[in-house]
Specification:
The protein is of the alpha/beta class. It is 41% helix and 22% strand. The protein folds into 2 domains: 172 residues, Rossmann fold; 82 residues, no CATH class. The chain has a 6-stranded mixed β-sheet, sandwiched between helices. Strands 2-1-4-5 form a 4-stranded antiparallel β-sheet, with helices on one face. The chain is globular, with a radius of gyration of 19 Å. Bound molecules: adenosine-5'-diphosphate and magnesium ion.
Length: 283
């Protein structure tokens, strides 16, 4: 994105914030499901344009935190701050307008669209602030992309290396490509934060590496902060600059990949030998 586009977007959203301010903050979030405390006073910061990993073994609370951040679950305690605004109670589509994007499954009934059409539709949905994909397709009929739409779609296709697939129908494409299309649909509206829940699920090693490279390029060129929610510790350690580790709903470690690699509480959680919190480990 050009500097002027960035400024225009900042002007639209209010006063510019310093680059070092976190674009997303989770403060003291607690979630109970009946007797199960899925998250216990979890706090984290996502600096602008950073790649942040959120990892933990199965049942650690990752998906619950993802739901809290994206707005599908209101926490029992704590808050979510997006670009300086408290969005704890805001609906998912309101957060999307404020610059929070998440990947979503490509709806099956649109599988006969080409990759380029799918991306055009995602762009249109955001630009026209319509929430239902079906409104844009079935009620009005399909309109070919405008020059502005085609330019943005072309940028995203190139960024994600989707050129060979642009004119192909979405159905039948390999799962690794389908995931990139999902990322493309999320990125096309120029979000400030992109949330990815378990992006490596269903991918083989080669596809995972290609996915990681595409996310790297996207974070750099689109100036988007990426929050990766993953159980695959190695993937997160390779991709993220800042890593938070959850275990049994508690944050047990936070730091650079090097710090996390050396962290005994993390090793214990991942080896399943013991579950210790940072406080316990320090004792
Ligand atoms: N809707 C729900 N109702 C009851 N318990 C839930 C619900 N969602 C998650 N849990 C419980 O909360 C804990 C955290 O789950 P989850 O966030 O899915 O973990 P993760 O994504 O790290 O595997 C688990 O003990 C899980 O069983
Ligand atoms: Mg999960």
């Amino acid at each position: 994105m050009s500097a002027s586009q960035t400024r225009a977007r900042e002007a639209e959203r209010g006063a510019p914030r310093p680059a070092s301010a976190p674009v997303l903050e989770v403060r003291d979030v607690t979630v109970d499901f009946g007797g199960v405390r899925a998250l216990s006073a979890v706090s984290l910061n996502v600096p602008g344009s950073a790649r942040v990993g959120l990892v933990g073994p199965n049942g650690a609370g990752k998906t619950t935190l993802f739901q809290v951040i994206s707005g599908f679950l209101v926490p029992d305690k704590g808050s979510v701050i997006l670009d300086g605004r408290d969005v704890t109670a805001a609906a998912p589509h309101v957060r999307a307008r404020l610059g929070l994007a998440r990947t979503f499954q490509v709806p099956e009934r649109f599988e006969t669209m080409t990759v380029a059409e799918q991306l055009t539709l995602a762009h249109r949905i955001h630009a026209e602030r319509r929430r239902m994909w079906s409104d844009l397709v079935s009620l009005r009929g399909w309109r070919p992309g405008s020059p502005g739409e085609l330019e943005r779609v072309g940028e995203i296709i190139e960024l994600l290396g989707l050129q060979p697939f642009a004119r192909r129908e979405v159905q039948g494409l390999p799962v690794g490509i389908a995931k990139l299309i999902e990322v493309g649909c999320a990125l096309i509206s120029r979000p400030r934060v992109l949330l990815l829940d378990e992006p490596s699920a269903g991918l083989d090693t080669k596809e995972t590496m290609e996915f990681a490279r595409a996310i790297d390029r996207a974070a750099e060129q689109e100036h988007v902060a990426v929050v990766l929610v993953e159980h695959d510790l190695d993937l997160v350690l390779n991709m993220a600059q800042l890593v938070y580790v959850l275990d049994f709903g508690r944050l047990i470690a936070a730091g650079s990949p090097e710090e996390i690699r050396a962290d005994e509480a993390v090793q214990a959680a991942y080896l399943g030998t013991a579950s210790v919190t940072v406080e316990q480990a320090a004792q």
